[in-house]
Predict the structure.
Amino acid sequence: MANKDKVIDLVFDIANKLRGPYRPPQYRKVMLPMTVLRRLDLVLQPTKDEVRAEYGRLQAQGLEGAALHSILARKAAKGRQHPLYNISPFTFETLLGDPPNIATNLTSFIGGFSENVRRIFERFEFELEIEKLDKSNRLFLIIKEFTDPQIKLHPDDLDNADMGDVFEELVRRFNEQANEEAGDHFTPREVIHLMANLIYTEEEDVYRPGIARTIYDPTCGTGGMLSVSEDVIKSENTDAHLELFGQEYNAESWAICCSDMLIKDESVDNIVFDDTLTDDGHRDRRFHYMLANPPFGVEWKPQEDFVRKEHDELGFAGRFGPGLPAIRDGATLFLMHMISKMHPSPEHGGEGSKIAIVFNGSPLFNGDPGPSESNIRRWIIENDWLDAIVALPDQLFYNTGILTYIWLVSNRKPEHRKGKVQLIDASRHFVKMTKSKGDKRNRIAYPSDENPKDPDQLGEIVRLYGNYQDGATARVKVKNSDQDEWEDRVCSRIFDNRDFGYLRMTVERPLRLNFQISEERIARIEAESAFQNLAKSKKKFGSAEHKAEVAEGEAHQEAILAALQEAASDQLFKNRDAFADELKVALSDVSPKVLAPVRKAIINALSERDQTADICLDSKGNPEPDPELRDVELVPLPHNIPLPLPMDYDRDADNTKLLQLVRDHCEEYLAREVAPYVDQPWIDHFKTKVGYEIPINRHFYVYKPPRELEAIEADIKTLEEDILAQLKKVVS
C-alpha cells in the first residue's frame, strides 16, 4: 500500500515537469508509456547481458524467426511461454550516459524489445513524444527521474494487482485534468473484487487442481477484471490453468493491459484491439467466465448501422436477436454479446458459462414491451439465465454518483437456483472515504493490507449470495443518517422467474357522443383536414386547371356550410345513427354529393363527448372505443403459466398462442380491478404485449411513517427562534 501510493505520487510529480511543452491533459501521453517502459526495463535487467550474449551467438549461427524468439524468451526468464526480452545495449541507467543521443538511443531501446512489446508502444504512439521531449529538453530529465530508487516499479516491489491500481489512479488523475470520464477506463478495485468473488461462488470446478478455464472481458480497459479474477482463483487453486482474453477499443488502455499480460506471461494475442460491438475479436470462441463494466449511459450511435444490420439480418443467429436498447444507452448490447459466447449448458452437453456485468439502473426497467430492453430482459429470464442482481451503493464510481447493479447471468445454475432470481440489496454496504476521488465518496470495505481493520462488507455481500436465503438480513447503516446508526434489514429476496413478467393489457371504453348542428360547432368544420382538402388541387400550381379545381372546391365548401347553417337548431342528438339521418337530410340538396370522408369529418366536428349519450356502434354493431378513454393495465403473469412464453420477439409478433393461456386471467383482472370503477370496459386482446422489468428497489422498500406533527412543529419553532436571535444580532 505505502509503495503503491508513493509511486503514484512520485510519477504524478514527474508529470508536472512536463509543463510548458505539454499541457496537463497531455501528460498521460508521456507518463503512461514511460511507466510501462521502466517496469519492463526493471523486469528484464537481471538477465539482460545473458540475453544479449545469447542473441549474438544465435545470430552468428543464422538462427531467426520463432525459434530465435523462443530461445531468447527462455533465456530472459526460465519457463516463460511468451517472448519478452530486449536485445538492445541500453537500460534507463545507460541511456543517461549519452545525453546528446538519448532520443536515438531510446528509440533503439524500444526497437530492441520482442515484437509483441514493440506493438504495444506503437499503440502508445510514443515515438512522436520522444521527438517532442527531446526538442524541449525534457527527455533526459524524465528518464533520470524514473531511475530514482524510490520509484519501485519492479514486480517484486509492486505486484500486478497493485500496478493495475497505479495505472488506473494515474488514468483517473490525468482524465480529471482533461475533464474526461474515468469510468470509460476502469472500475473501482473493490467492485472488481466483489464481481470476481461473486462469479466464482458456487463454482466448485474452478477450484479443482489442474482445471482449465477461460476468462473474458469484452471491455477490458487496463485489464483489472482479468487480473483480479486470476488472482482470486489462483489464491485457492495454484494448479488451475487459466487463459485470459479481452478486447479494448482505447489504444492506451489496450497497451497498458497488454504490458501487464506480458509480465504475467500471458499471450497478448488474446487481447484484441478493436470495437467489440462492430468487430468481435473472438468471433468463434466461447468462454467459461466473463466479466465486464461496459460504458453505461453512453450512446451507441457510432455502432448503430453495424448493430442494426446484424440484428435485422441474423436475428438470433447473431448476437442481438431479442431486440435493441434505446440509442442513448448501449450497455445491454455487451451483455447480449457475452451471452452469445457462453458454452452450451450442461443440459445440452456443454460445461456452461457464468457472467458478471455491472450496469446502471436503466437495464432494469427501461423500454416498452417489444424489441427493446424489455425483450432483452424477457429473453434472459425466460431462458433461466438471470441468476442474481446486486444493488450497489451510490457514489461508488469515479465519474458518477448514481446507483449501479451487478448482474450475474449463468446457463449452469445449480439445481436449487433453477427457475429463480435472487435480488440482493447491498446499497448500504459501504464506508465513507476519508478523501473523495472525483464522484467516488463511498467504498465497499473489506480487510486488506491497505485497511486491515475494515469490516468485511464485501464478504457479507458474497455470503448473502452464497447462502441463498429469502429474507436474509444484514446489519447496515441507517440511510441518510449523519450518526453512526445501524439497523437489521432484509437484504436478500428470492423470486420465481415469472414474477418479473407482466402483460400490458389495453383497456377500451365505449365512445359516447352527442351531436348538434349549431353555429359554434359548424365553425369547427373548417379545421377538419378532409373539409380543407376539398379546396386543394394536385394540378400544377398557378395553372388554369389548378385554379379551376380550387374554385370548384371552395364553392362546394360554401354550399356545405350554407346547408348546415340553414339546418342549425338547438336540438341535441344523443344517438349517432339518428343524427346521421338528420345530417343526410340537411345535406341532401348539396351538389356535388358530399362524400363519406367529408361527411365523417362533419360529424366529428359537430360532436362532443357525453357520457350520458348512447354508445357509438361500428358497422358490425360492436361498441366503438373512445381513444381518449383508452388505458393500459400492467397485469402480472399468471403463476401457472409455463416459461418461455409462446410468443416471438419481433415488434408485430402474433400473440394468438399467448392469448389462449392468459385470456381468462386478463378477463378476471378486468372484472376485479377495472370494471367496478369505470363504464363498460373491455380488453382489446390483440394488443396484449409481454413485458419484463426488475423493480429491485421496490422489493426492499420499507415504509417509515413521518414524524409526529408535534416534533416537526417543535423543530420549526426552534429554527424560528434561532433566526430571530441572529436577526437581533445583525440589527444591534
Remarks:
- The longest helix spans residues 544-567.
- The mean pLDDT is 92.
- The chain has three domains: 2-158, 182-500, 513-609.
